[in-house]
Amino acid sequence: MTALLSLGSNLGDRVANINAAIDELERGIPHSSMFRAPLYETEPVDVPGEYADVRFVNTAVAIETGIDPDELSRIVHSVEDALGRVRGERHAPRVIDIDIVAFGDARSSRTDLRIPHPEAASRRFVLAPLADIVPDFILPGQKRTISELLAELPLRPAVARLD
């Protein structure tokens, strides 16, 4: 099964936070392959006004795994916790944020596990990295590929690839 994860950080050494999270995911998730997207610096989306200038670094990974969505969610949360994620104010700055964007064609609307991610198809900071690694993937409930969805989004909030 292909799991798509979106990762973001806007506190501390953002790149190091992302790299540490990916290393922990690679160690914690049984997988046959993992593909990592390039890093992007992104304007924040839906943040409280006092955080409007705090930019994120985002990326995505695609993982071929045999575990189920609940186990993946447990591993993701344990990685966030291990790296110092503090849960509290919605959309506040964070050391690391890892979202399960999709898990094959699975769907879940439970409050503790929502897949596909309900806002993924409308977020450039999610789709741009995913388009680099799985451009032809169709998110459950969508009719267009990730690349097609990305092409239809406005250019703001902006994302810029870090080289």
Describe this entry's structure for a reader.
The chain is α+β, with helices and mostly antiparallel strands. The chain has one domain (2-161): 7,8-Dihydro-6-hydroxymethylpterin-pyrophosphokinase HPPK (Alpha-Beta Plaits, 2-Layer Sandwich), CATH 3.30.70.560. Helices cover 28% and strands 25% of the residues. The protein is built from four helices and eight strands, in the order E-H-E-E-E-H-E-E-E-H-H-E. It has helices at residues 14-28, 69-82, 124-133, 146-152, and strands at 2-9, 33-36, 40-42, 56-64, 97-103, 108-110, 113-115, 159-161. Strands 1, 2, 3, 4, 5 and 8 form a six-stranded antiparallel β-sheet that branches. A hairpin with a 2-residue loop joins strand 6 and strand 7 (113-115). Helix 1 packs across helix 2 and helix 3 (124-133) packs antiparallel against helix 4 (146-152). The longest helix is centred in the first third of the chain and has 15 residues, at 14-28. 34% of the residues are buried. The mean pLDDT is 94.
Overall form: globular
Number of strands: 8
CATH superfamily: 7,8-Dihydro-6-hydroxymethylpterin-pyrophosphokinase HPPK
Return the domain count.
1
Number of helices, counting only DSSP H or I runs of 4 residues or more? 4
- Determine the mean pLDDT: 94
**Category by helix and strand content:** alpha+beta
What is the CATH C-level name?
A: Alpha Beta
Task: Report the order of strands and helices.
Answer: EHEEEHEEEHHE
Low-pLDDT stretches are: none
The CATH architecture would be: 2-Layer Sandwich
**What is the terminal separation in angstroms?**
30 Å
Strand content: 15-25%
Radius of gyration: 15 Å
CATH T-level fold name:
Alpha-Beta Plaits
Q: In which range does the helix fraction lie? A: 25-40%
